[in-house]
Specification:
This protein is mostly beta strands. Strands 2, 4, 5, 6, 9, 10 and 11 form a 7-stranded mixed β-sheet that branches.
Length: about 120
């Protein structure tokens, strides 16, 4: 069965960097777009970044453009989120997800597999 496992979260200070990883297993995902979402307490799960199946296209939420970089390694079934210049408002649980097709989608309903999440906490 498909399984996604996130890692790399932690407690950092504002301005620091973190790299999140998502290990996917169960089948190849080269035809599927993937994405990172985040959910802060009391808020909805929001799109952060997405990447096409072969990695040639990416998309970012306005709030993270220029600071976050999404990438994937299909040979290893891995996806990454490099987060720089972290802000207090980036604090959330971060989830990786596999889309229902090859197009990057912004809505959670367009993704059918999810990881368990990894906590990112940014202190001032």
């Amino acid at each position: 069965q498909v399984q996604l496992i996130e890692s790399g979260g932690g407690l950092v200070q504002a301005g620091d960097s973190l790299r999140l990883s998502c290990a996917a297993s169960g089948r190849p995902f080269i035809r599927d777009a993937m994405g990172w979402f985040r959910q802060a307490p009391g808020r909805e799960r929001d799109f952060v970044a997405g990447i096409s199946g072969n990695g040639d296209r990416t998309q970012y939420a306005d709030s993270v453009k220029g600071r976050f970089t999404i990438s994937r390694d299909n040979a290893k079934n891995m996806m990454y989120l490099e987060m720089n210049s972290l802000r207090v408002e980036d604090t959330a649980v971060y989830y990786c997800a596999v889309a229902k097709g090859g197009v990057i989608m912004l809505r959670t309903t367009s993704y059918n597999f999810w990881g368990q999440g990894t906590q990112v906490t940014v202190s001032s």
